[in-house]
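Below is a filled-in request sheet from our internal design queue. Each sheet records the structural input a requester submitted and the sequence that came back. We keep these sheets so that new team members can see what a complete request looks like end to end.

REQUESTER: design group, bay 2
PRIORITY: normal
MODE: inverse folding
CHAIN LENGTH: 944
BACKBONE (tokenized):
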């Protein structure tokens, strides 16, 4: 059993017994507890109530029983100068009211019955003032006096003061029954309204208040209506409730005092609470647990220029909002369709559950600004599922017209959005979207619907579809999880700029999985949009992107794509592809042949970056706009490894792990910049600026690293098909290449005149083995220039075109590929034109083998050493000036490093005394410990 639902189930069981008691016959019976008692006469099903005790503008009535049958009327025949008719029930019977309560003029009507109150489907109010019904023990006045239904024996001191609060004992429930209401879009305005405007249930006049305060409040299809007024539902089982600052209980929110204990509020069977009017009225709900189920709703619509009222929902424990099985959502809704600004919606609880169409929304369809939606839930918020018709559960702040949407702010411990639920801010018209801010101290999880063929989407989003700007989306949490085709995004489909997206997860971010739709965090400019994309910033300790998930920014039109900045203090791990073959990664793209916007840049700041098994970090363009740059700042290491098991349909080969700046259109590719201590590229992975499938030029590849290792087909490349080959510039202390690895700026294809790019390498040591190559070749254009500045270059050959022609036995080198040779080469040729070959320049220092040496006297060499000890004692070796000697002039100089494991550290021993030498010197002394001396692995020669 769901523990959070237990209080509701218990309440339902108790209420069933209470509510199925036999209805009382028409009984309005006065008691005799007032100085002037009430009188009741009956005429044509109308009980006319006269008398009572008057104090100033207050008129007091006291009854032993008070019920009104179906078709009956209780008519308070008050004078017109009476402002408040205050009525109590002192007997032991509940009040069953299924008829009309009526009073003269604009008097407010108060009804207190601690035994309980039931309003039937036919209950109505015909009063000019406000109405309060309560199962409280007594009504509290501003001067401190009380009008008690529990202790009527003592003649009360009746007061002329304003009622400001209620004293509740073990308060019984209040129930309102009715036919419920369907909610539909208004044909003229599109606003959500009741289908039958004439079925209003308990209703007060425009601008008046309707208050129900009992131990529990249950609306079973009941309807409460206060046009442009105030509605308060208070479920309090014990303690006091008061208004702040001594205001009337009919004119202000009523606040439970610290010792008060809450009851439950439940709305079912399409029950409605509606304060819509020329201005939206104020609505307050307060209880222990609050449930809106079966299509029930609380709504306030602002129709004209006045500002709308606020909706406040406070639960000491849980709030549950569940849609109807027939497809009608349940929830809270504040809308404005006129010039007036909408009110704010505030939700506070320990937990909040929105499921199967449960919603909370602020919206504008007019010129007025929509109100803000604020959700403060201490433990958890869960939004899950849709109605049978596909209406999502969730939290929404939106504009569909000129007015600006409100902001959506969430503060909680844990937020879960799943099964096609949404949390979003949206601008459909010319108004700007509001900002979406999520602060979750523990975690944010967005879990999608990963069923093939299901288009449903779980998301956190901020979007604009018109001229208005999109709102910003910010998430602050410890852990963020996005999986199974869920998404977190900002986008624009119109002229407005998309909002910025910022994620701060102090511990980790995991983005994983997805079948037909990938899991993703992205900022996007959609087709036909002219607005620019928003920037995307991610900050965390560990970032994991896997199984085809992505972080992305794209533009499909004129708008500029946004930049992506990822900062992960410890590590970034990106691996694998989706089941459909999409690679995991971080991407910015210009998509569409006619897209003119430039793509955004990608910057990754971390300690360790690992990109495995077909995953990628890539910027690219498929249109006219240029692609962005990729910049990697990894203080410790970058490791690129492997290919995926699925085929890239554009290249007809497996997706390659790596870092890429590509062009597939006429726009130029961006550049790739890698700054790290150690770079490893292996198992077919690449770091590449690539224009092999487009008409634009490749960008530049720049690497600064202490150590670079290219292993087992690891590739650094800047290759093109038609445009200019990109340039590669490498600064490293050591570069090792092995097993068909390569560095290439090759350009052109058959009938394509691209020129090879340039390669500049500055290093201490460059070594290549097992058919590893460095090339700046071209097909029909000019070969590029290769410049290598190194202390030592090992394992490479530098064949000229003539050497290659001689080796292949032909002058036709159109099919030449350095990988076809078994050795490692450095080449810069044109395959088709001998006159367009590039240049290879290798600069290594001229090394004098005798540099740094001094002559040592050479004793004569004898065939047999008669006395090795004496010879050894007379011999010496002097090493000065250099860390070591190179084996050959072209090899790197070795250093003088020692193995620390071969060094013995002298142990420190605490002094245990002191003594004086013969010359007077004082020395600290200690007893020797049993120490096992270090044993050399060589047997020493013993010399006498």
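RETURNED SEQUENCE:
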């Amino acid at each position: 059993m769901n523990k959070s639902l237990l209080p509701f189930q218990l309440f339902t069981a108790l209420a069933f017994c209470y509510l199925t008691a036999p209805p009382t016959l028409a009984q309005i019976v006065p008691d005799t507890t007032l100085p002037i008692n009430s009188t009741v006469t009956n005429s044509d099903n109308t009980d006319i109530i006269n008398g009572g005790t008057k104090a100033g503008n207050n008129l007091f009535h006291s009854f032993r029983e008070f019920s009104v049958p179906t078709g009956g009327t209780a008519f308070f025949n008050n004078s017109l100068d009476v402002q408040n008719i205050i009525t109590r029930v002192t007997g032991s019977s509940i009040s069953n009211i299924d008829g009309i309560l009526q009073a003269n003029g604009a008097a407010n009507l108060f009804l207190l019955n601690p035994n309980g109150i039931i309003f039937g489907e036919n209950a109505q109010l015909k009063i000019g003032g406000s109405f309060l019904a309560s199962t409280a023990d007594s009504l509290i006045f501003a001067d401190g006096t009380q009008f008690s239904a529990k202790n009527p024996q003592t003649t009360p001191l009746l007061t002329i003061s304003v009622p400001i609060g209620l004293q509740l004992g073990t308060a019984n429930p209040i129930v309102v029954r009715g036919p419920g209401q369907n909610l539909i879009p208004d044909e003229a305005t599109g606003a959500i309204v009741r289908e039958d405007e004439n079925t209003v249930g308990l209703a007060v006049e425009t601008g008046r208040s309707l208050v129900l305060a009992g131990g529990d409040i249950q609306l079973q299809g009941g309807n409460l209506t206060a046009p442009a007024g105030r509605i308060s539902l208070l479920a309090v089982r014990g303690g006091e409730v008061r208004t702040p600052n001594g205001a009337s209980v009919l004119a202000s929110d009523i606040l439970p005092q610290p010792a008060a204990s809450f009851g439950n509020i439940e709305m079912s069977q399409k029950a409605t609470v509606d304060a819509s009017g020329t201005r939206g009225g104020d609505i307050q709900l307060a209880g222990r647990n609050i449930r809106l189920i079966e299509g029930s709703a609380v709504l306030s619509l602002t129709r004209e220029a006045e500002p709308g009222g606020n909706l406040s929902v406070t639960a000491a424990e849980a709030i549950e909002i569940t849609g109807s099985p027939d497809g009608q959502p349940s929830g809270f809704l504040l809308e404005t369709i006129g010039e007036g600004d909408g009110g704010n919606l505030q939700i506070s609880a320990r937990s909040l559950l929105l499921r199967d169409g449960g919603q909370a929304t602020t919206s504008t369809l007019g010129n007025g600004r929509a109100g803000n939606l604020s959700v403060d839930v201490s433990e958890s918020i869960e939004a899950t599922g849709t109605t049978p018709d596909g209406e999502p559960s969730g939290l929404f702040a939106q504009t569909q017209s000129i007015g600006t949407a409100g902001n959506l702010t969430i503060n909680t411990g844990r937020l879960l959005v799943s099964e096609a639920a949404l949390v979003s801010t949206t601008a459909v018209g010319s108004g700007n979207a509001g900002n979406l801010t999520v602060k979750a101290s523990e975690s944010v999880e967005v879990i999608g619907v990963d069923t093939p063929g299901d288009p449903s989407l779980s998301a956190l989003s901020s979007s604009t579809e018109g001229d208005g700007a999109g709102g910003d989306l910010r998430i602050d949490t410890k852990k963020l999880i996005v999986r199974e085709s869920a998404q977190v995004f900002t986008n624009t489909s119109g002229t407005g700029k998309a909002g910025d997206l910022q994620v701060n997860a102090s511990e980790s971010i995991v983005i994983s999985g997805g079948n037909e739709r990938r899991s993703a965090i992205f900022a996007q400019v959609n087709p036909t949009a002219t607005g620019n994309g928003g920037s995307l910033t991610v900050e965390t300790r560990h970032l994991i992107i896997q199984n085809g998930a992505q972080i992305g920014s794209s533009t499909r039109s004129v708008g500029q794509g946004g930049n992506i900045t990822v900062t992960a203090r410890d590590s970034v791990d990106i691996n694998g592809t989706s089941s459909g073959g999409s690679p995991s990664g971080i991407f910015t793209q210009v998509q569409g042949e006619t897209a003119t916007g430039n793509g955004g840049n990608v910057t990754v700041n971390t300690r360790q970056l690992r990109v495995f098994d077909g995953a990628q970090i890539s910027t690219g363009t498929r249109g006219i706009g240029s692609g962005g740059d990729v910049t990697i700042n990894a203080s410790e290491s970058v490791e690129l490894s492997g290919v995926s098991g699925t085929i890239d349909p554009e290249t007809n080969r497996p997706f390659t792990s790596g870092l890429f700046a590509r062009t597939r259109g006429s726009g130029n590719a961006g550049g790739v910049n890698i700054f790290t201590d150690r770079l490893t590229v292996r198992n077919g992975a690449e770091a590449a600026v690539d224009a092999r499938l487009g008409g634009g030029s490749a960008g530049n590849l720049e690497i600064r690293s202490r150590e670079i290792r290219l292993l087992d087909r690891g590739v650094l490349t800047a290759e093109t098909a038609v445009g200019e080959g990109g340039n590669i510039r490498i600064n490293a202390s050591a570069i090792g290449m092995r097993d068909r690895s390569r560095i290439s700026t090759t350009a052109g294809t058959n009938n394509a005149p691209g020129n090879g790019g340039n390669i500049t390498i500055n290093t201490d040591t460059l070594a290549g083995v097992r058919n590893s190559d460095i090339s700046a070749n071209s097909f029909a254009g000019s070969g590029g220039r290769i410049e290598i500045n190194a202390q030592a270059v090992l394992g490479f050959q530098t064949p000229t075109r003539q050497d290659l022609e001689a080796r292949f036995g032909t002058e036709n080198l159109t099919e030449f590929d350095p990988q076809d040779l078994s050795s490692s080469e450095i080449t810069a040729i044109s395959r088709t034109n001998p006159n367009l070959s590039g240049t290879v320049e290798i600069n290594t220092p001229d090394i004098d083998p005798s540099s740094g040496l001094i002559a040592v006297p050479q004793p004569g060499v004898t065939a047999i050493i008669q006395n090795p000890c004496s010879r050894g004692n007379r011999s010496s070796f002097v090493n000065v000036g250099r860390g070591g000697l190179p084996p050959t002039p072209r090899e790197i100089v070795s250093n003088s490093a020692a193995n620390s494991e071969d060094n013995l550290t002298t142990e420190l021993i605490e002094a245990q005394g002191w003594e004086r030498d013969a010359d007077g010197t004082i020395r600290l002394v200690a007893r020797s410990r049993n120490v096992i001396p270090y044993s050399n692995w060589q047997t020493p020669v013993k010399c006498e």
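SHEET NOTES:
- Helices lie at 6-19, 801-808, 868-874.
- The chain has three helices and 70 strands.
FILED BY: M.R.
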